[in-house]
Amino acid sequence: MKLAILSRSPDCYSTARLTEAARNRGHDVEVLDSIKFAIDLERGAPDLYYRRKQIEDFDAVLPRIGASITYYGTAVVRQFQEMDVFCANTAHGINNSRDKLRSLQLLSRHHIGIPRTTFVHSKRDVLPAIERVGGAPVVIKLIEGTQGIGVLLADTVKQAEAIIELLQSQKQNVLIQKFVAESKGRDIRAFVVGDRVVAAMRRVAQGQEFRSNVHRGGIAERVELPPEYVETAVRATQIMGLQVAGVDMLESHNGPQIMEVNSSPGLEGIETCTGLDVAGAVIEYIAAQVDFPEIDVRQRLTVSKGYGVSEIYVPEGSKFVGKTIRGTQLYEHDINVLTLYRGAKVIPNPKPERVLEPNDKLLCFGKLEAMRGMVPVKTRRRRRPEISDLPADAVQAGAVEVSD
């Protein structure tokens, strides 16, 4: 395998370890500066040049894109993707994780545990927002901060107001987040590669510092994660669209709560703490995946005229609850079920004999007209929405009785 590591710091611990791990396994590896590329675009022929030489023979790319060059770095990663080169993390995934608000929106949508968070712009909305997350103390975060930078703890409402006003006056977007008191000064970092956690550590802040980042002086200790934490870390990584990530979680009374999903996690702290060859696990995963470049499935599936992708919910009380997927006659309406979502479970390519349960959600590909008949008239979203039955005329038109 010929591997490109995109990094501006070839001598830093993480890049050096990844390079060493690749070479120890017999792979050809080069460290390339992310901003030294030129992107050429022509019909049917996306190209990349590095230091004025054409790039054309890499099997895989491992992006280590710093926050300061996110836009240009992800453009380079995206170009590799368009050239059908396997990228350990995609441009889409990196962008999702880099924006704290966007990442929390995605996780909330998929029922992943997160601290209660609010985002406001108007000064008049600040006090109600603080009240909604449970009052002071609150954590205030810059949307694009890293390594604990731009994370502040406000002990009182007045403190919070003053901090937010100051940051907003500097054109900074901030999040207001519930302070999880039982996890003060400590968190969990799970290092996810593919569909498993390869290493995990607990970070503990020192002194009066509430941020546990190693870069802020935190002490790390190896930890064996309960299954709930492992599943949460892996699902959060997949929801972001990443395959290599560091997932930071708080240990709350309600179970794991995600703080951040890092697309360029450092290796020094977790390898030193656990004694595990994390870099080797990353390289071995990439080597096993090089024949499967990332595909924008939704884009590819929706280019066919009249066909598209949709999510369809099975409502409580539907006559199809208890029936198999085959029994719903979706296939007869030229609709294929790609994935079944059941609570926190994700069931890819479910078998036709799979029995449906109340509130199942189906990711389907098929004729848009057929699926449109399954979606009821949109109503105003309530905090805890109740899913309505299909309109009678949709059923009469030949659609299956499922509901969005």
UniProtKB/TrEMBL annotation:
Q: What are the boundaries of the signal sequence?
A: none
Among the GO molecular function terms of this UniProt record, one is: metal ion binding
Q: Which GO terms describe its cellular component?
A: cytoplasm
Q: Domain named ATP-grasp: which ranges? A: 104-287
Q: Which domain of life is it from?
A: Bacteria
Cofactor(s) recorded in Swiss-Prot or TrEMBL:
Mg(2+); Mn(2+)
Q: Name one GO biological process term.
A: potassium ion transport
Q: Which UniProt keywords apply?
A: ATP-binding, Ligase, Magnesium, Manganese, Metal-binding, Nucleotide-binding, Protein biosynthesis
Q: Which residues form the RCK C-terminal domain?
A: 296-380
State what protein this is by name: Ribosomal protein S6 modification protein
Q: Which organism encodes this protein? A: Microbulbifer aggregans
